Amino acid sequence: MFYLLFIDVLSVIYRCLGKGTQKYRDYWALFADNFLILQTITNLINRKIDFLSTNFKQEDRMKRIITYSIIALLQASVALAQTPVALTQTSMAPAKTSSKPKLQKREKYEWQGEIPTYVETLKKELTYPMAWGNSPIKNFKKWKKAARAKVFECMMTPPKAAAAWDMEVLGEEQREGYKAQKIAFNINAYSRITAYLLIPDSEYGKNSNVEDGKNSNVEDGKNSKAVDGLLLSAQNKKMGRFPAVVALHDHGAHLFIGKEKMIRPFFIASEEQDADGKISEKKKAVNQEILDDADAWVNQLYEGQYVGDYLAKHGYVVLSIDAPMWGERGRMEGVDRNKYDLIAGNMMMLGRDLSAFMTYDDIASTEFLASLPMVDAKRIGCVGCSMGAYRSWMLSALSDRIKTSASICWMVTTDAQLTRRFGRKENGGFANCIPGLRQYLDYPHIASLACPKPMLFINGTKDKLFPVPGVKDAFAEMHKVWKSQGADNLLDTELWDIPHSCGLKAQEKMLEFLDKNLK
Fold first, then answer.
1. How far apart are alpha carbons 11 and 357 in whole angstroms?
2. DSSP code of 465?
3. How far apart are CA 372 and CA 238, in angstroms?
4. CA 316 to CA 245: how far, in whole Å?
5. What confidence category does residue 425 fall into, taking pLDDT thresholds of 50, 70 and 90?
6. 3-state helix/strand/coil string of 309-353
7. What is the three-class DSSP state of 13?
8. Contact at 8 Å (CB) between 190 and 347?
9. In this predicted structure, which of 106-115, 201-210, 317-326, 492-501 has the lowest mean pLDDT?
10. pLDDT digit string (tens) for 22-33?
């Protein structure tokens, strides 16, 4: 029993250190070499136990097992103590040795926290002249056209469009009721990205719009050539179309994974093998870290259920990509959240906006999804939580491809977002910063560009990032717009007794809303 327990302890240590558990990821960099020592000790114990089992009685055997186990632990302790990097100065330092240097302060100041002391005065100057009802344009369609043009103007120069999607299926995995594919395609002229695509198993989609074997989603012949791994040409005659969803991942100040927050990751041969085709232990360790990280994140924010996989089980084609700076679109040097704002500033120096690039990519990925032969281009929705919710209603507001959307835990007014009245809050930052746009429209006004589409918004009364008064004000602004168009029944805004999260009940509500409007 003691031996098994000891081996289990070593196994747990290895998993914690080597498999990417968030808390211990930094420790692994220090202990990686020493795991070989632990592994060697374990193998020695295995051989000793086999010897003892053959040559000693049980009572003596247990004494010797305990002795060898203690020796092994002592040896491991000595080995770890000799690690060249001093642990006491890094991960395990006491508070007094790792405290930040004292900030230099002047008696007078003009900023408090992340906002100016005169923030309330600035906000009074924001009159939102292009909001519906404030704008001199009284024709709703003309207003939408003008307001959307202003949003795109403030988003600055878009990325140059790709000449073709040039999609490639890198690998696939059969799951319960659907197929998971890892794909690559050109999201724009600068970036060829990887993504996850989920396709329901059924040979026939509901409400098929395929006629005479033509891919009616392809316009003007763009991207009309056959794509590996997809059913095209003659087989299209037998194949129906499915409703589809763009699954948009959150922020969470956690950039190591992106699309993997929405769809459970799997790994293709090239991600596990060296150039010579041999299995790479280093790559396997990274893959396990990604999987462990994704599972832990989904347990924390999504109550253990991957949103994309959940929707695919219920008959939706699901696409999820990494936003710029997340997942496989991050920094060569590795994840550093503090670099995000610097990179966003550098993009502005180049006349581009990082947040806008995220939205432009979401629009492009929706166009790509609409081009796939198994997708009904007239039945596409989008969903997301937190930053994913922001991405969801932005996409619905700016893309006519999107017919409905669900946004969980991201809606507020600028007045409630940029203030000290409510304590901790979502201050926005560059992830949702579009230069100059507040001079014309607030968040709910932009979301209202989606009117009269069916839209679902859920925020939480226990969500410390989005103050309830600001959420209520934003919801009220949107309802004014939908009511003005006789479509208030299509706007569903709800406040639940939940923290900042997208649990099982929220996902169930999301599915119900999608089914109602896409099936």
1. 43
2. T
3. 15
4. 7
5. low
6. HHHHHCCCEEEEECCCCCHHHCCCCCCCCCHHHHHHHHHHHCCCC
7. helix
8. no
9. 201-210
10. 444 444 344 333
